[in-house]
Design a protein that fits this description.
The structure holds 3 protein chains of 3 kinds. By secondary structure, chain A is an all-alpha fold. Chain A has one domain: Orthogonal Bundle (ABC transporter involved in vitamin B12 uptake, BtuC), CATH 1.10.3470. Helix content of chain A is 73%, strand content 3%. Chain A has a two-stranded antiparallel sheet with strand order 1-2. By secondary structure, chain B is of the alpha/beta class. Chain B has one domain (4-232): Rossmann fold. In chain B, a hairpin with a 2-residue loop joins strand 4 (62-64) and strand 5. Chain B is globular and about 45 Å long. Chain C is mainly alpha-helical. Chain C has one domain (2-229). Helix content of chain C is 76%, strand content 1%. Chain C has a two-stranded antiparallel sheet. In chain C, helix 3 (16-41) packs parallel to helix 8 (142-169), helix 4 packs across helix 5 and helix 5 packs antiparallel against helix 11. Classes of the chains: A mainly alpha, B alpha/beta, C mainly alpha. Chains in contact: A-B, A-C. The A-C interface holds A 33-34, 36, 82, 85-86, 91-97, 99-108, 110-111, 219, 222-223, 226-227, 230, 260-261, 263-264, 267-268, 270-271, 274-275, 278 and C 39, 43, 45, 47, 92-93, 95-96, 98-100, 102-104, 106-107, 110-111, 114-115, 117-118, 125, 230-231, 235, 238-239, 242, 246, 270-272, 274-275, 277-279, 281-282, 285-286, 289.
Chain lengths: 287, 236, 315
């Protein structure tokens, strides 16, 4: 029973990791950008939610109404103001600029909020649970998982059934030709990062509701996101969900064997999968 | 003659340090179709890419309807009503046929051309509208590329290598449709390797050689000999 | 040359604090040169070199404490061990392209950190100090130890710098530059890209581990968080190289000088100082991607350490 419980907890944790990962996956798909500051932006969102609850006195889930537009704005401005200047054939500039951004954000958060761990107080939801047989499933992890699925369905819908998604795919295929169709590459990339940061916003609030956070936890979230993306296979959002679940289960089982092994088990499983299936479980089929 | 819609004035174009065009002067009047001929590497595609904004040039060296657009971004030029059908079709592989066409309408210009009218022009595309664009034959892909450009209801259509790599029967079909394509008030510049076809379709031709305009004139007045001489750069 | 001799003689003219600072500068310069070799020349951007710094440090402690090796021999052995470990690691993370390779290196560093935190004999998560007897075995007096560790640091720096210089001027080094400039063309020329990159990765790992050993021989205390710190051993190193000029030999030198000048003046501001570093790196990367040295070299058309062969027509 304990093991089953660990697996269920791992699956639900995987939902959170898939949320971390889908934003990373999205911008890689549209503009081949790997954002090293991704994890720090998730943490930034958690802090923005914290400030909103403190200033406006609202519930963290209501704070989402403030956090999401703010994150979208940050994403758009960041892309157009900074990252668009780094995109090209050379992978160094975007990598190093987002790395610089990561260091900047981490220390800006330290300046603004100190290194003390913080938490978003979501009230009774934190401890509420439902019983399935002998299993007791926390409502918060369960709703996080559901949110992850809703977000992925939403992103899939945007990508494959809207004009915006068509533009994302066109720019990703061939940015020059897309410009001939009147698409501004800079604008589309701005929208892509805005959307990615909206997902970061949701992920950040759920992260803050589940566990305590401090300015330094961003890099860990980036690594989980990255592992989920690679395990699932590049360019496939449902694969990313599976990747998140594999990672989550590996961590909870590892942690069950020895608490010190929790993170290590996740990394080891990731490296094993990289060794046997370097393209992940569900790589996107190339046309 | 009606007014000049698009013109280049001492257009110089570069790929990095390499100069591909030297002082090209060219003009097209409203409703006119002109052809650009010349050997491979003569700078024909570069000329169209410069007009479409894929290659930046001096602002004054390309004028559209009186406005200097030489240094504009491609997407702004597209919104002004210039559409390029690029060499090699260049469809978006992750988009279906219909999505490729719809993308053409992103420019946001309304007019005769919309999904229905494009499907009337090329009925075969309607049957295949949900297929990935890469699953089509070369000729059908060219139809998608033309349709995609038309969806922006352009004032000027730039055809780069309209028949390159296509079967003769397909080329015939496309040329038969050319009057329908252009008849909706559009002005066109076509690049065509086949001099005979170019002469038949256009009212004037420009012959480029090594990045310079070697010869220009009305298709009625130019003789085949003059063109052959310009084309192959026979020394005087 | 004179500058180098002057610096080598530092123990006879400099105070203890200066000596320590200079030693630290040499070790940072070595790390910067090594990272620059990987990223700037071989196109492999690693954000996980702290894996080898920490490995070198921990191996120094383990080999001296449990195997009884003298510290300097332990550093040599740990470099060899790092190289041996780097081969299977490379075969894994080379499967990741470009930017994902970077994060892959980070995962490896995390695995190292978490693994060493599990080793109770080395103090687990809270770390351990080098036993006094081993420290004393280096040299009996404190000033003797400080001079020795200074000489080791400057020696390591010279070794790293000179070997990178000659490597880059060798046939393999030129192949590396070819890869950086155009991977497809280089493979067309018969350059075995995978192998050349592997060699660079492995050699860099070994030398980085040796530098790591020297760093913790100076510190005399190690813990997983200090040994595998991404800030200390990768972020700072990246700033040094980026600000100085990535892909140039001179860049890391300029970058190290600038970095330590900044640090000595702004270090009191703590995280604000790091924010400034982050911003400076972003600005440099966008406005002058070849860094301060690239900017100077372009402006005055100079090259202190000629890398390119000039065609000579002699019969």
């Amino acid at each position: 029973m304990d093991w089953l419980n660990a697996i269920v907890q791992g699956v639900l944790l995987g939902g959170l990791y898939a949320l971390f990962a889908s934003g990373l996956s999205l911008i890689f798909g549209v503009m081949r950008l790997v954002n090293i500051a991704h994890g720090d932006l998730i943490v930034l969102a958690a802090y923005l939610a914290l400030s909103t609850t403190l200033i406006l006195g609202v519930h963290p889930f209501t704070a989402i109404l403030v956090v999401i537009p703010l994150m979208a704005l940050i994403g758009y401005v960041l892309q157009r103001g900074v990252l668009n200047h780094t995109l090209g054939d050379d992978i160094l500039p975007p990598l190093l600029v987002t790395f610089g951004l990561s260091v900047f954000l981490q220390n800006a958060l330290l300046e603004g909020y100190t290194a003390d761990p913080q938490k978003l107080n979501v009230g009774s939801l934190e401890t509420a649970s439902v019983s399935v047989g002998e299993l007791s499933i926390g409502l918060l992890p369960l709703s996080t998982f559901v949110v992850a699925i809703v977000v992925i369905v939403f992103l899939q819908w945007i990508f494959y059934h809207t004009a915006l998604g068509r533009q994302f795919r066109a720019v990703s295929d061939n940015a020059d030709i897309a410009q001939l169709m009147g698409l501004s590459k800079g604008h589309i990339f701005g929208l892509a990062l805005a959307l990615s940061l909206v997902v970061c916003g949701i992920a950040g609030i759920l992260l803050g509701a589940r566990t305590s956070f401090d300015p330094a936890v961003g890099s860990g979230r980036l690594i989980f996101a990255f592992e989920a993306v690679i395990i699932g296979g590049l360019g496939n959002l449902w694969g990313t969900l599976i990747g998140g679940i594999v990672l989550g289960v590996a961590q909870t089982i590892g942690g069950k064997i020895n608490p010190g092994w929790q993170l290590l088990a996740g990394h080891v499983v990731f490296l094993l999968i990289l060794a046997i299936r370097p393209r992940g479980f569900f790589p996107r089929v190339e046309h | 003659m009606s007014k000049v819609l698009l013109q280049t004035d001492s257009l110089n174009a570069f790929y990095g340090d390499f100069q591909a065009l030297y002082d090209v002067d060219m003009s097209v009047c409203e409703g006119e179709t002109i052809a650009i001929i010349g050997a491979n590497g003569a700078g024909k595609s570069t000329l169209l890419r410069s007009i479409a904004g894929l290659i930046k040039t001096e602002p004054e060296s390309v004028r559209f309807d009186g406005t200097a657009i030489g240094n504009w971004r491609a997407d702004k030029i597209a919104k002004q009503g210039i559409a390029l059908i690029p060499e090699g079709r260049q469809l978006f592989p992750s988009l279906s046929v219909e999505e490729n066409l719809k993308l053409g309408s992103t420019v946001g210009r309304t007019g005769h051309w919309q999904l229905d009218t494009v499907y009337q022009l090329f009925p075969v595309l309607k049957e295949r509208r949900t297929q990935p664009s890469t699953s089509l034959s070369g000729g059908q892909q060219q139809m998608v590329a033309i349709g995609r450009a038309l969806m922006s209801n352009p004032e000027v259509l730039l055809f780069d290598e309209i028949s390159l790599g296509l079967a003769p029967v397909i080329i015939n079909t496309i040329y038969e449709q050319l009057p329908n394509i252009i008849s909706q008030g559009a002005t066109a510049i076509i690049i065509e390797q086949d001099v005979g076809r170019a002469m038949a379709a256009a009212s004037r031709v420009y012959c480029l050689i090594e990045g310079r305009v070697k010869l220009e004139g009305s298709t009625h007045e130019l003789t085949r000999e003059q063109i052959t001489e310009a084309y192959f750069g026979v020394a005087a | 040359m004179l500058v180098v001799l002057f610096l080598v003689a530092a123990p006879w003219w400099a105070g203890r604090a200066e000596l320590r600072l200079l030693g630290e500068i040499y070790l940072y310069l070595s790390l910067a040169c090594l990272w620059n070799l990987m990223a700037g020349y071989a196109g492999m951007v690693s954000v996980g070199q702290q894996a080898y710094v920490g490995f070198g440090g921990y191996m120094l402690f383990a080999l001296t404490m449990f195997v009884g090796l003298p510290p300097i021999a332990a550093i040599g052995v740990s470099a060899v061990l790092a190289a041996a470990l780097a081969v299977p690691i490379a075969s894994l993370i080379f499967r990741l392209n470009g930017a994902y390779f970077a994060i892959g290196t980070w995962v490896i560093a995390e695995v190292f950190r978490l693994t060493f935190a599990q080793v109770n004999a080395l103090g687990g998560g809270s770390g351990t100090s080098l036993p006094v007897s081993i420290v004393k075995s280096l040299a009996s007096s404190r000033s003797g130890r400080e001079s020795l560790s200074y000489f080791l640091a400057i020696g390591a720096m010279i070794l790293v710098f000179v070997s990178i210089y000659f490597f880059l001027r060798s046939k393999r080094g030129l192949a590396l530059t070819a890869i950086r400039d155009n991977e497809t063309a280089a493979s067309g020329l018969g350059v075995n890209i995978w192998r050349t990159k592997l060699e660079v990765y492995v050699v860099t790992a070994a030398l980085t581990a040796a530098i790591g050993g020297l760093i913790f021989l100076q510190k005399l205390r190690i813990s997983p968080d200090a040994a595998f710190s991404v800030n200390d051993w990768t972020a700072f190193v990246i700033f040094i190289v980026v600000i100085g000029g990535i892909g140039t030999l001179e860049g890391p030198i300029i970058g190290t000088i600038l970095f330590f000048l900044l640090r000595e003046t702004l270090a009191d501001y703590g995280s604000a100082y790091l924010m400034i570093l982050g911003l400076v790196a972003i600005l440099v990367m966008i406005k002058a991607p070849r860094g301060v040295w690239g900017w100077i070299a372009q402006k005055y058309d100079i090259e202190l350490l000629p890398m390119r062969y000039r065609v000579q027509l002699d019969k």
